[in-house]
Specification:
Blueprint: E1 8-10, H1 13-22, E2 31-34, E3 50-53, E4 70-76, H2 87-90, H3 101-116, E5 119-129, E6 132-134, E7 137-139, H4 141-149, E8 153-158, E9 179-184
Parallel strand pairs: 1-8, 2-3, 2-4, 4-5
Antiparallel strand pairs: 5-9, 6-7, 8-9
Helix pairs in contact: 3-4
Amino acid sequence: MPPEITSWHVGTNAELIGKCAALGYLHEGDDVLDMTFGLGNFWTLWMPTALTYDAAQDCRFPPRRWLDAFDVVTLDLPYRLRGTPDPTFDTRYGCQEKASEQDILTLLVDGVQAAITCVRPGGYLLVKCADQVCSGRVVWQTRIVEDALASPLVERFDMPPSRPQPPGRRQLHARRGSTLLIFKRRK
């Protein structure tokens, strides 16, 4: 049975984090862990007072002190499955090396399974991913993440594509943006 999707929202990373706060998934006093490799692009419009960045850790192996330690955990792993990495874009996120589709999907599954262990019971995990066309077929990353957590989906936020179609290439399918999925850890 598919999880219940309660609403859809469209915006940038920072705008969607602001919407998450407005909807009550994030509070100023929450202990928040950002397990994203990058520059904290989620936190340019709204920021909690207690924010831990994890740009150096391998998200699949969080330190023991992080287990059950955070009210909210965000995860924005490298999830692009197609094409050659773009150094100007991908280096910011630590995904400038070409990786196989299976390696990326394994990282995504292992990452979300590790991230949920850092969330206190009753807290939230926010995962950014994208359904994509790869080698002529759709890879439903949102479903892969949902299945990895075996948890009902609480909310879904969609972001427009961040890059235009490259010049000189015919667009073969709809450009999809990424999705921010919100899960609540059971008490």
